[in-house]
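Predicting holo structure, acetyl coenzyme *A bound.
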Amino acid sequence: MYHAIISGTGSALGAQKVTNEDLSHKLDTSDAWIQERTGIQSRYLAQEGQTTASLAYDAACKALEDAAVAATDVDLIVVATATPDMHFPSVATQVQGMLDIKKCTALDVSAACSGFLYALDTAFNKIQLGQAKKALVIGAEVLSRIVNWEDRATAVLFADGAGAVLLEATEETQGVIGVDIYSDGSFGDLLKTVGGPGSSGQQGLIEMQGREVFKQAVSKLAEVVDFSLEKYNFKAEDIDFLVPHQANKRIIDATAKKLKLDASKVVLTVSEHANTSAASVPLALDTANKEGKFKKGDLLLLEAFGAGFTWGSSLIRWQK
Ligand code: ACO
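Done. Tokens:
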């Protein structure tokens, strides 16, 4: 069995920064309400010419540059997204085409906000089995195109962006310790798109019962982080950084409190980026990496929760 290390990270954002104040001119909302309930101050929205694939490609290029690896060496691309630009080809093969990689394995995975962990799990397993050596694992979304801009309860939450990591096989050094992903389809109605997609040509728009989603997110995340620490034989005090899905600062605070983690150990980007679904964890990872927060050997706990419901976590030894 091979090990897998993260050797590079990258990210890309929608071209237009939109503040809470900007939104309050279009919706019956306020900066105070949004900040108090979510911790969000701004978000970046894709502009004309930006697509899920173009954001994914930009993030991938930066991850490759960070790892000093040529695109032609990549043998696996996994893209997590809930907002592909079209039904097919997949975003992953679009990225492959843009990177001019003539032959590799490329696929999309769909698990809403937990998508990056699902993609990481796929790539990690293929690397462990010796079926891939250098994998681009990407989360990319243009959620602004499936937001109901008349629904203030959801419109203020979601945003656009992409995050990518290059995952490389090694024989000696352990980076990814484990990835654990779960789902429970009985909660599907609490967070879904309504009115598409499909052959109707309509685009489905996000509909969410926020309060119920909030409760389930807090409880499932508490359960999964406990389980993960126990499974891999760690204690909460071993964690150097929590890299959570950036949906809501109150959900993140609840997980950090449960783990008794000081705020300095929590990577928090929701205030600037809002909820970018599958992109949020790798976007947070890249932001912290570029800020020089992590040092070699640090133990990172990644976690996410999203529509489905889907949820999961991963423990990673930072080896860059
Ligand atoms: N501005 C002002 N008022 C608002 C807004 C807004 N943007 N949105 C809702 N309100 C009002 C409501 O109408 C309601 O008014 P009322 O009391 O007069 O009826 C009041 O604020 C309270 O609404 P709630 O929905 O109960 O507010 P809550 O405290 O639950 O916060 C929120 C809402 C932020 C959506 C929260 O429930 C939440 O974060 N839920 C979880 C979302 C999440 O984590 N999703 C993760 C997965 S996302 C994915 O998978 C794609």
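The chain has a mean pLDDT of 97.
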